[in-house]
């Protein structure tokens, strides 16, 4: 047999002494998930990634984004050194400085504003990643500003608010019970594209088990191919669809009367409200055939246990989003599927716990009533007091709040994620001081006075749980490029300059933070480093149905009528999950098409992936997708340019005729700097309860662009 040469081994990236290639296992982290990858390393650099298949919870899969991670690490847009602005804001002209000068400058600006005007005139913002947010809350509290916000102002919190109104403040974003449900409703999410490979694998596990799948999604996707029923509501009408299902369940006596009597509040008022949502009316509102809606309602009630899979954003990226989310969730209470095995928020096994996990941390801001927009969203102030709703960040920076914001201190900020980013740019030009800590030189960074280079996931040590009870230590996969630091190291340095410390006990180093994070497990950092992976010594007891049903609402019961919303006494804050039709608020005669943005492609994750050639070159993006009948009406063919116009602007984009779209709905992908669809969405078009923008259901018109 002919011997394989070293050159051939290197070309195939085969690890071993002969090639000098080694394999290290660690977390991807690109989209915020915790997928485990094997990183192939040559001369200190990652040259290839594969899915890990040896550690608990790993399945050997890697998504297309994880496969391209070396292009993210070694991207020419990476910020590798601290820098200060030398040109006009927005020009992107910077010169390298030392970490000392950069951090001293930020601390001096924060301290001088605090002394002259008060700490509240400094605003702190955190986008991606999220892992250090609990410590950021401590940081802003000790500095003294209540004006701390995150990307969750347009991401997860509206759905969390819906769940909290229904089921109590300890219920946030609950994963479906893939392993025990008989019926699985996948509502407004495409897990085979938009979730990590672990989420997609969970869905496929439920399918393989024989669970009946119902998908509620306006588009046809790979996920809908697995559905026994595919309901395609007009975007933004999900609440009416859920209320119609509730009426069917009640009128056919399929609801769980004993459960409702024992565990819920406000059922009679809710029952009376849903009676108006007849199958005929719901079909007219949503476009879903009444026969499909009725069949779905019967399956939810009669073929349980039933679980629901919801994404953090699609249902709530509508101006009636919180109430729509409440209406969907209450189907679980109506049928007795909340808190049971196989249902929504069901019992779970005994688990290890790490200190200050992002979603489980409830460190509130001090004095939120001093916030720049306190009172504008009273339900937000009650339910999400740990953060400021920053949807109107443009107004804050332009001086249109209760008081001016003079300093903006940001970590991982992308102003294109909000509607009307052009208005935010005007605010970033005017703010007195602006610092950005980030991975890449993005459009937001170009407006900053100081830039701080941040380490990626593979450039820092991490501790995570693998499964319910196994604790895993990831050393650095590769050494830091340039002078990058991780976000916690930056926070500790800033805190020291501002005269306070973080952590209890105090963190002097990143390793002391890791030691404290590990403390609930009973393990020490040294022994975990020695073994790499160990079972936790201290375990939280299993959560039972009895535990779950002790809900943390004002009434102590699941609330069909939300006492928190009702007490707000504001428009659209009804106690019942009232449906408001977004079309009644828009100039639909002049702009007759519904604009829906934000659908996922497997290779895209917001704007980050548009800078990676392997991913962005897979296909032309972004594109305007039209149903064939709409395309025919406007004489548009695939590949032709159209002008898309909304009440706030217009843009020329390439059209694609796609039969998976609904008639009358225009779908546009988001995240591309050159074709930012958010420029065309009004930043005043928001949910009055959560402040979330109506990305999924705005209005537009198109015309073919002549050559």
TrEMBL record:
Alphabetized UniProt keyword annotations: Iron, Iron-sulfur, Metal-binding
GO MF annotation, one: metal ion binding
UniProt cross-references to SUPFAM superfamilies, sorted A to Z: ADC-like, Formate dehydrogenase/DMSO reductase, domains 1-3
Superkingdom to which the source organism belongs: Bacteria
One family name in Pfam for this protein: Molybdop_Fe4S4
Keyword flag Electron transport: no
Location of the 4Fe-4S Mo/W bis-MGD-type domain: 21-77
TM spans (from-to): none
SMART domains the UniProt entry points to: Molybdop_Fe4S4 (SM00926)
Keyword Transmembrane helix listed: no
Signal peptide range in chain numbering: none
Family: Belongs to the prokaryotic molybdopterin-containing oxidoreductase family.
Record protein name field: 4Fe-4S Mo/W bis-MGD-type domain-containing protein
Source species taxonomy: Bacteria, Bacillati, Bacillota, Clostridia, Lachnospirales
